[in-house]
Amino acid sequence: MYYAFAASNRSCRMSLEAIVIALIVLQITTLSLLWVQQRRLKRVLVLKESEAGGIPALMIVNALNKIDHRLNQLEQGTQKADAPKRSVEIRAIQMTASANQQAATSNYELAQLMARDGSDLDQLMLRCGLSRNEAELMLRLHAKRA
């Protein structure tokens, strides 16, 4: 019985040794695969850095973010500085429109007077800057009827 137990104990020891050896081989294989993968990743990283002029991508992203922030600040400052110019431009446009409206009104008033005084269609068009249809309308509305 002792021999059976000893034989059984030896077989257990041998199977444990085989398992330990298998685990060591598996660990060595895993470490070598990880080492190969690390070398590949280093090559890829070196290639990417050389494509970007040797500057890591994170530094480029940070620099672009700073530039974008600065541009936004400059745009906001420009908008604040342009606000008075815009208000002056709006006032100038309003004044021009008002002057044009007054000129148009005075042209129509002149056309009314000329139509009452007996001017013909061509005179209204030339002196008052009216279109043919506008001059005809002035004559119909304001000319003295015979």
Report what the structure shows.
This protein has 146 residues and is mostly helical. The chain has a domain at 1-54. The chain is built from 4 helices and no strands. The longest helix is centred in the middle third of the chain and has 61 residues, at 57-117. The termini are far apart. The mean pLDDT is 78.
How many beta-strand segments?
0
H/E element string? HHHH
Radius of gyration: 48 Å
Q: Supply the number of helical segments.
A: 4
Helix content: over 70%
- Note the main sheet: none
Shape: rod-shaped
Termini, distance in Å? 153 Å
**Regarding quaternary structure, how should these chains be classified?**
single chain
Structural class: mainly alpha
Low-confidence runs: none
- How much is the average pLDDT? 78
Key phrases:
146 residues; mainly alpha; 89% helix
Summarize this structure briefly:
With 146 residues, this protein is mostly helical. 89% of the residues lie in helices and 0% in strands.
